[in-house]
Amino acid sequence: MRLDVLAGGALPHGAEADVLLTVQWAVFICWVDDFIDRSGLAHSPPSLEAFATPLRQVLQPGAAPSARVMSPHVSVLAGLWERTALGMPDRWRERFAREYTDFLDATEQEVALRQVGAAALSVAGYVRLRRRTITLVPMLTVLERTGHALMVEDPRVDLRVRDLRWALADIAGWANDLASGADDELAGQDNLVAVIARESCCSAAVARVRARAMIDQRRRDFASLAQALRTTPLPADRGKELRRYVALVEQFMSATLHWLSTTGRFASGTNTSVVAQTPTRP
After folding, report:
1. Residue 14: what pLDDT?
2. Residue 70's pLDDT is what?
3. Which letter does DSSP use for residue 150 in this model?
4. Deepest in the core among 90, 103, 231, 263, taking most CB within 10 A?
5. pLDDT for 116
6. CA distance 162 to 155
7. What is the separation, in whole angstroms, between the first and last Cα of the chain?
8. Spatial distance between the Cα atoms of 136 and 139, rounded to a whole number of angstroms
9. Number of other residues whose CB lies within 10 A of the CB of residue 146
10. Measuring CA to CA, which residue among 275, 259, 25, 260 is closest to residue 142?
11. What's 210's DSSP letter?
């Protein structure tokens, strides 16, 4: 899967240990995602809940899962979490736990919706759910640790920072959907193109064009948000921290799109190079 390309692109000047930890998190995230899709969990809400519950427990304060019932996924998450959270502020730990738990919640919601019929999900509903199932937000929080650029929390920028993170998740999720169409169809799963085609009663080709237009617009939104954050008046030190964080987010988006379009994550899908251009400020 060449996740070294993703991590190296996200941290082009990172220390070897930081890049390695980033690669390991990316491997874990993709491993969980693929396991859910390919093991039958994506079509069985009770089985998915049983799989996800111990993962949630790992992230609870003071958690110590029993080795007798620890699955490989739980074991890996426990080890990664112990190494990554060491020395990090409580607010960061709580935020990551909340974000990864939200990914699990959203995945369970997606599977439950699948049981009542894909038509239950509109384009707007799919977009809201997709930004939570793509796992980009918790991965970005890991990068705060490995990229040494914590998210700035300040009432003057909180809403824009949130929207910047959501824009990143949308762009990556939709680009992923353009690439994974063949895989998703084989698995009987929806993606953005299929939802657009169904809601608009149009062909898949037309839906792909509309999806690309959505990505283009979201990238313009992302660039505007990044520029607004860079120019927000804050005390000198806070302003420097904010610009460093924005640069990290921009670099991660560039690395993610490059990885999707060039490394064969979805070898049977359609190339996403049209949407994988370098952002205005890498």
Report:
1. 96
2. 76
3. P
4. 103
5. 75
6. 11
7. 23
8. 5
9. 23
10. 25
11. H
- Joined tokens for residue 230: 């860079």
In order along the chain (282 residues), what is the average pLDDT of each group of 10 residues? 93 97 96 89 91 94 63 95 95 97 95 73 92 95 98 95 97 89 68 91 94 96 97 93 98 93 57 42 32
Q: Show the tokens assigned to 213.
A: 């237009």
Nearest to 43 by CA among 104, 108, 105, 111: 111
Hunting for tokens 């085609």 — which residue is that? 197
pTM of the model: 0.89
How far apart (Å, rounded) are the C-alpha atoms in residues 236 and 76? 40
Q: In sequence order, which residues have a C-beta less than 8 Å from that of residue 29 and are 6 or more positions away?
A: 135, 138, 139
- Joined together, the tokens standing for residue 218 give 């979201």
Q: What is the pLDDT of residue 277?
A: 45
CA 135 to chain centre: 3
Residue with token string 């680009």: 175
